[in-house]
Design brief:
With 434 residues, the chain is of the alpha/beta class. It contains 13 helices and 16 strands. Strand 4 (141-143) and strand 5 (146-149) form a beta hairpin.
């Protein structure tokens, strides 16, 4: 799973032991699963990665709190890396409040205004200063209570199509937050800079009005993100990156595989266009990418995009008709391209979208930066040099299909065996009595 990057920008490297900072700031040593650090056999890798799926099974089935997230080594700072001393809550708040008084800081990260929630007058004054700068600098124009972000003016220097919305959505910071949520952006930490937020929210609300001069980039973000790895602060600001490259960026959130596909279909139908770039963002293993936090046992599989969805169940049937023939797909997740497992999720997606570039990570990591050539992703740079790209021809896909289906069948048998083993285990009383 993706781990949040610290302000020191340490790469997440899986070692034999890692330092784990507990809530009191003390360090302890935690072992790393040998199945994920040594040259495991494909079957052993299946079993190891399947624990990610099984760890979400509910406690009322197995008698223990398996539905709670179990921290992995990849969530911690690697051994030997300095751990900064923790700041007190009051010191953090004071630092944020000081930054919130600087309008340019707020434009880059509007979320720092939440530090002033306890002081509505100060928050409103800071927000008004931000709006004034946007108008005086020419980034936005207000005419008859309509805000316009013009094509010629953009802080990133990229010409975007005009953005218009009623000024009432910007009168207060709380009104702006409500506008983002109503536009489908509930994880606002993924789009902290103000102008990108306005642009993406506008696109989400005006799919029919999109022009056809720019390629569409669709980002499907997970609802579940236990450590904030997909926020712009801890991870990569994917929405701003795509926006600065001249894409028409659309952002949606989904908590199940079926919901993700439904969103892709909706955007394809409303715009009448195919996706040039498609991004799936969620915590992952070699076999799956997590979108939601399942509750009931019947919801466990649905909360993940996994190899079954593409190869057997058909949950993403028709996706090849919604992604451009020269399109690209980025699996922003840990280990989807793990080379120790040939039929990993990365390879499986490539078999369903022949001729497209599929990008993924070979290990637990996070995106450091993305480089482009001629408005196309050239390479995704991951921490630890974990990047991988694959593009399969239709002939290769046809030849590999029998072996893929055989492996999927074996994987299902392993998952069934593990579920039976878990159900046979005696109930374990947790320290809190649950």
């Amino acid at each position: 799973m993706l781990g949040a990057m610290t302000e020191l920008n340490h790469p997440l490297v899986v070692g034999s032991k890692v330092q784990v900072a507990n809530p009191q700031g003390q360090q302890s040593i935690a072992p790393v699963s040998q199945a994920r650090t040594s040259g495991a056999t494909p079957e052993a890798q299946v079993r190891a990665d399947s624990r990610s799926l099984l760890s979400w099974l509910p406690s009322n089935i197995f008698g223990s709190s398996l539905s709670r997230y179990r921290p992995k080594a990849s969530d911690a700072i690697p051994a030997g890396m300095p751990v900064p001393p923790p700041l007190s809550a009051s010191a953090k708040l004071q630092a944020l409040q000081l930054r919130a008084q600087n309008p340019r800081e707020v434009i880059n990260n509007h979320q720092i205004l939440t530090s002033l929630d306890s002081d509505p007058k100060a928050q409103h004054a800071s927000w008004q200063a931000v709006l004034q700068i946007l108008q005086t600098q020419g980034f936005v124009q207000v005419d008859e209570n309509i805000m316009r972000m013009t094509e010629a003016k953009n802080m990133t220097g990229v010409k975007n199509s005009a953005v218009t919305l009623p000024w009432t959505h910007l009168k207060t910071y709380s009104a702006f937050q409500k506008y983002l949520r109503s536009s489908g952006i509930t994880q606002t930490g993924r789009v902290p800079d103000l102008l990108t937020a306005l642009k993406v929210a506008h696109n989400n609300n005006h799919l029919k009005d999109m022009g056809r001069t720019k390629p569409i980039a669709l980002v499907v973000g997970s609802v579940e993100d236990h450590n904030g790895a997909f926020t712009a602060v801890n991870g990569h600001h994917i929405l701003q990156t795509l926006n600065t490259q001249g894409y028409d960026v659309v952002y949606v959130e989904a908590n199940t595989d079926k919901a993700a596909m439904a969103q892709i279909k909706r955007i394809h139908q409303v715009t009448g266009r195919k996706m040039s770039t498609l991004v799936f963002a969620g915590h992952g293993t070699s076999q799956d990418l997590q979108l939601g936090a399942p509750g009931k046992m019947s919801q466990v599989e649905d909360a993940f995009i996994d190899v079954d969805d593409f190869a057997v169940q058909g949950d993403f049937n028709g996706l090849d008709k919604m992604v451009a023939s020269n399109g690209q797909v980025l699996l922003w997740a840990c280990s989807n391209a793990d080379p120790r497992l040939k039929h990993n999720l990365h390879h499986t997606v490539a078999t369903q979208l022949p001729g497209r570039d599929i990008f993924g990570a070979k290990m637990d990591s996070n995106i450091q930066r993305i480089t482009f050539k001629k408005q196309r992703i050239h390479w995704v740079h991951w921490y630890g040099e974990a990047g991988h790209k694959i593009n399969l021809s239709p002939a290769t896909v046809k030849a590999e299909r029998p072996a893929q289906l055989k492996w999927i069948s074996q994987r299902r048998d392993i998952l069934k065996d593990q579920a039976r083993e878990q159900m046979a285990e005696p109930a374990v009383l947790q320290p809190n009595g649950s």
